[in-house]
Amino acid sequence: MTIVSACVLTACGNNSEPIADDVYQNGYVYTVDNQRTVAEAVAIKAGEIIYVGSTQGAQKYVGSSTIVHDLQKKMMLPGLHDAHIHPTGIVDVDVCDLGVESMDLDQLVSALQACRVKYQYDDKEIIFVLQWNSYIGNEPTANYPNLISALDAISTTQPVYLAGPDGHSAAANSFAFSQVKNAQGQVVGLNKATLANEFSQYRPFVAVDAEGNPNGNLTESAVHLVGVPNFLYPLQQNPQELPKIAKKLNKYGITSVQDAWVGDAELALYKTLAATGNMSFRLTAAQAYSVSGFVQQGKVDYAALITKVTNTRDSLRQYPYMKADAVKIMIDGVQEGSIIEVPPTLPTSVMINHFKQPIVNLSALDQGQVSLDGYVDLNSELCQKVRSQAEDYDEQDEVNDFMAIHQYHPSQCVAERGELLAANGDTLTLKGESVPAVEFLNTFVTKLDSADFAVHMHAVGDGAVRAAIDAIEAAKTHNKNSTLPHTIAHMQVVHPDDQKRLGALGIYLAFTYGWAIPDYFYDLSVMPFVEELTNLEPETLYDEASYYIQASYPARTAKEAGAILIAGSDAPVDTREPVPFSHMATGMTRNAKVGDEVFTLNANQTLSVHDMIAAYTINGAKALRQDHLVGSIEVGKRADLIIIDRNIVQLAESDDPEKVYEVYDTQVLTTIFDGKSVYQAPTQP
């Protein structure tokens, strides 16, 4: 893009139109208005768009003070909306970081020892490690039979914590497990005995070995029980790094975000950032909450809960680029389990049907291979006996005898669907018949809707998605005039019936499109628990006739039924980089190489380039209730704009189908926020 002198094409001041501060002309301006108009020029004054049209027509807004920018046919888009992201986690802070690399336990120990040398932790200091890949890798070795033994090799006298890539998973060493306190504040440790008693409600979230002892892996509420810090911890220790949030977002053309989990600590950081004048993005804070303290005698004090989130919303009125008119609700966990554990660790998602219980042959695991020997028959007389006489299978010799005969662990006879986390993980508070999770979810969503809060719900499994849809339907039935843009995020597995219901209710869907591709080793942590597979070959995993493939990230089906697609990177999950154009490209292709062959995760769900742009712009703006301000390039809206280095519409619609893959590498050249340039790509040498 070049900047040319003002008044080149017109006489200064010889018109009645307002004089623009900036005019961008000679470009491919994809406006995302209702007609998907493509213009050539945009004029801006005081941060507002005052003209959209031809280059010639823009000249009447040029005066002696106007800066005229020659786009040189480059593509201009509205600023992008990332509607499900955790911006406080995208900052690169100098701490031990494993970069989500897949490692076996020997490699993991080597990486952690290198961190110990680099960061010189003292003997009492918490060793806290970010971006550990909790779903791929971690294979046992001759030196380390399980994860906890690997972490104990780093220290047995101080906590060693690994934070997973998604906020749902973590790991800890034996010392950390030994320091866990009960409800009375007594140190009792988290172990086989306490898991069977005072911590029994955490049992689904603590992975165990064949003997029933914790193996180091933790999910959901157990992460907090063992005291694992979250990924916000490093930034809280280094608040001087806060401006990097805005810089990174703007580098990717992101000018509006919804932080999908904002508690008091996160809000304090954003207020600090705003006070520095470095808030070059619009923030919608989806408020986290806890029901702890709001339940007495089995009854939830909904009025007090609503008052709390309302007070937080009101506290941001003085901040022009911040609002908190949404509430985050966690409905389930994650779809990933582990088939290399004994017994296999189940997902923490919520499903309509029971998880399948694979019988896995690990004899060649040291060569990086596993095979599938079949599935446990949960309805068999044997499994019924195990469930009814569980006390006969709780001693190690009994377990060993059972496994020697049947080749699977007796605990695999348990029929599990996952547990609703509608109270954001406060399973203790809502456990029991007096306040069932479904009742809480439906009632709370209805009351939030009445109080003018949009809900943003995490739902991964098909059972969780159904519960989320039911709750939104209940709210819309009760509040018949409600038009709030309630959103469901992730939706990794959606039953075909519910794909239609998403559309019928006009629900906003925050897919992370970059996840909707084949990833063989990742998929081994998911599909064996959903499908009864005959083997673990890619041709079997990606069979488009299977339920999982048909139900996985059903973007196009839901859109065609009437749902509204938006986009969320979920960064720093997987990577700290939000990479919106990579997500757009994946949404259009949904394929990847597995070995030497390309497989697709259900080609019926691919989207057009126009769908993807709308998801990141006008639809995102509607979801965040700011489409009157931004989301399209139209007169009267604020000038949140980006200029990119290639025309992604022409690439995606080229006669050469390979051209779409060039969208992956799209770079942002300029980001304009509220009329001001806040990012310029470095000039190429």
Radius of gyration: 26 Å
Helical stretch count? 25
Distance between the termini: 15 Å
- What is the overall silhouette? globular
Query: Under CATH, the topology of the largest domain is which?
Result: TIM Barrel
In this structure, how is the largest beta sheet organized?
A: 8 strands, parallel
Question: What is the total tally of β strands?
Answer: 30
| Average pLDDT rating | 92
Category by helix and strand content: alpha/beta
Domain count: the total is 4
Q: Within the largest sheet, what's the order of strands? A: 9-15-16-19-22-23-24-25
The residue fraction in helices comes out at 25-40%
Q: Please name the CATH architecture of the largest domain.
A: Alpha-Beta Barrel
**Low-confidence parts:** 424-433
Report the CATH superfamily of the largest domain.
Answer: Metal-dependent hydrolases
CATH class label of the largest domain? Alpha Beta
Strand-residue proportion? 15-25%
